[in-house]
Amino acid sequence: MNSIGEECQELKVAYDSCFNKWFAEQFLKGNTNDPCKALFGVYQTCVKKAILEKKLDLGEIEKDVLGTDREEKKP
User: Fold this and answer.
1) Structural domain contains residue 71
2) Containing domain of residue 26, as a range?
3) A Gene Ontology MF term for this entry (predicted)?
4) 2 by DSSP, 3-state: which?
5) 3-state DSSP assignment of residue 7
6) Which of 31, 34, 36, 52 is deepest in the core (most CB within 10 A)?
7) Total number of domains constituting the chain
8) Domain presence at residue 69
9) What is 28-75 written as a DSSP string?
10) Is-contact 11 46, C-beta < 8 A?
11) Cβ atoms 3, 11 nearer than 8 A
12) How confident is residue 3, by pLDDT bands cut at 50, 70 and 90?
């Protein structure tokens, strides 16, 4: 999945790679020291900026839709 902002894509790829390597090679062996934490912070800042620039309402993602009359049904 791509990042929400094109300008964040390289950061997302770098963070995903770092996290996946750490999780598989260290975390599952008991090492909970996260070397990707700083990179995540930079990526998170980029994503938050992209959300603001696109004027996305994050409240929309928290609304219940499935099983309600707001759910779009197939014709």
Assistant:
1) no
2) 6-62
3) phosphatidic acid transfer activity
4) coil
5) helix
6) 36
7) 1
8) no
9) GGT----TTHHHHHHHHHHHHHHHHHTT--GGGGGS--TTSTTSPPP-
10) yes
11) yes
12) very high
